[in-house]
Amino acid sequence: MDVPSSPKNTRKPIGFAPPFIDDDTIRAVERVLRSGWITTGPETAAFEKELAAYCGTDAAVCGGSWTGLAGVILDWFGVGPGDEVILPSYTYCATANVVLHRGATPVMVDLPSPLNQDGFNLTWDAVFPHLSARTKVIMPVDVGGWPTCIGDWTTKLEHWTTSHGFQANSEVQATLGRPLLLLDAAHSLGASIDGQSVGAQADLSVFSFHAVKNLTTAEGGAVTLSLPSSFDPTEVGKKLRMLSLHGQSKDAASKYHASGRDAWRYDVIAPGFKCNMTDIQAAMGRVALARYGADLEKRHTLADRYDAGFANWGPAHLPKRRDERRQTSDHLYALRLTDLIETERNDLIQQLREVDIAANVHFQPLPLLSAYAQRGHDPKDHPEALAAYACEISLPLHLHLEFEDVDRVIDTVKRAHAVILSQRTPGSNPA
After folding, report:
1. CATH 3.40.640.10 in the chain, residues?
2. DSSP per-residue codes, 255-297
3. Contact present, 198 and 190 (Cβ < 8 Å)
4. Mean pLDDT to the nearest integer, 220-241
5. Helices (DSSP H) in 244-400: which residue ranges?
6. By mean pLDDT, which of 65-69, 91-95, 267-271, 355-359 is the weakest?
7. Kind of pairing, strands 204-208 and 221-225?
8. φ and ψ at 19, to 5 degrees?
9. β-bridge mates for residue 197, sequence order
10. In angstroms, rounded to a whole number, what is the distance separating the alpha carbons of residues 325 and 221?
11. Alpha-carbon torsion 257, 259, 261, 265, what sign?
């Protein structure tokens, strides 16, 4: 199935999400390399302070990946065998993998029916029936950068806990007195709710700085802390950093700056993991965060261009991007073409590829993946997630794009869609 020829198809390839690395980033990395201090140190500490200020939170802790930090948080909270973590089935596998790594059970929740103002995100009404005495954590996901109003859940969760009780298995759990609200904010740095940046609404919010994210440190991530006043954010941050460095009580910088003949000595407070952020990564992140407001504005204008191009086009269901309370970070432009079945959606992606336009799918529902199907998760239990996935296509959205590139993508999608419909058997309507 070939897209009809067009002179536009001879233009430059359009990648899906190439990282934006400018000269300032390169100079910052060079500065750190020449400093002689490349692992966790002053750059990482500065980046943490800047992230906390940006998100309006008590503290932030940087790490080597979203996955590493999310796992460390579950360990800190005492999640283990017999415990349950509620999360969406419509997410990337990392959200559930970290739960399995602790021996706990991921409780997967289907999307609401029909998809509404919450887009691909979980709602409290969908979560509520899955709460049980085993629930230790609720982990919604801000799919595509559209923020979950998780701050609204706190009072509801406290009411549920008062009625049903909470069995604490650790000192930290006892201090909180209810399940932890842990936001998977991998996509949503810079999104906002009621004018407040995402990061301050949940107890803990974990961001990703992977190469394809809006802000990248190549690999990496951060958690922002907005816990109740019964917690000391400085102490919690210190504990999470230690758990990110094998549970070691001193990092390299602390040992270097300490004095006395026992300055080298350290303790290991728990068998942690190795997922600290390096100063090389932090230098990249600091440059990107300093310009992040301008970067977001460009992403918003590009996504607005997509909206205008697909507006009033019958098959297109546009992603949720703004409402009276929320603003997306526009990490993804997740279009749904509801008159296509899965194989036709795949054909459309292939047609884009043939004219050098990259596209993707976010996400395959977890029960479709072998690792989860083999553990008894049945796709039939998640019909809304399957329906959303089957017709979803994520279009290029990144800082290298210009309006003419977006227009080319829009035009190609529409023409490819017409080709697919034209090749259906007369009278059939598989969607």
Report:
1. 23-290
2. HHH--STTTT---B-S---B-PPPHHHHHHHHHHHHTHHHHHH
3. yes
4. 98
5. 252-257, 279-290, 292-310, 342-354, 370-373, 383-390
6. 267-271
7. antiparallel
8. -65, 150
9. 192
10. 26
11. negative
CATH superfamily assigned to domain 292-422: Aspartate Aminotransferase, domain 1 (3.90.1150.10)
Q: Roughly how many angstroms between the first and final C-alpha of the chain, as a whole number?
A: 19
Residues of the chain with CATH 3.90.1150.10: 292-422
Tokens representing 291 are: 């310009």
CA distance linking residue 92 with residue 185, whole number of Å: 12
Rounded Cα gap, residues 259 and 234, in angstroms? 23
Which spans in 150-222 are helix H? Answer: 153-164, 171-176
Q: In angstroms, rounded to a whole number, what is the distance separating the alpha carbons of residues 410 and 408?
A: 5
Helix %, strand %, coil % of the chain (to 5): 40, 15, 45
- Give 71's Cβ-side CA count (13 Å radius): 23
Please choose, from the candidates 213, 207, 183, the residue with its C-alpha nearest in 3D space to the C-alpha of residue 330. Answer: 213
Architecture of domain 23-290: 3-Layer(aba) Sandwich (3.40)
The CA radius of gyration of the chain, in Å to the nearest whole number, is: 23
Q: Is the peptide bond before 128 cis (omega within 30 degrees of 0)?
A: no
- Between the CA of residue 118 and those of 105, 171, 181, 380, what are the distances in Å? 25, 34, 18, 22
Q: Is the pLDDT of residue 256 over 50?
A: yes
Query: In this predicted structure, what is the pLDDT of residue 10?
Result: 58
> Rounded to 10 degrees, what is the CA torsion of 342, 345, 347, 351?
-170
Please, how many CA atoms are within 13 Å of residue 384, restricted to the half-sphere of its CB?
17
In the chain, the amino acid numbered 313 is W
- C-alpha of 169 from chain center: 28
Residue 254 has pLDDT above 90, yes or no: no
Residues in the chain: 431
Given a cut of 70, whether residue 139 has pLDDT beyond it is: yes
Amino acid 228 reads: P
pLDDT of 184 above 80 = yes
Phi first, then psi: give them for residue 39, nearest 5 degrees: -90, -165
Torsion angle, alpha carbons of 291, 293, 298, 301, to 10: 180
Round to whole Å and give the CA distance between 104 and 81. Answer: 5
| Residue closest to 151 by CA, chosen among 82, 212, 87, 198 | 198
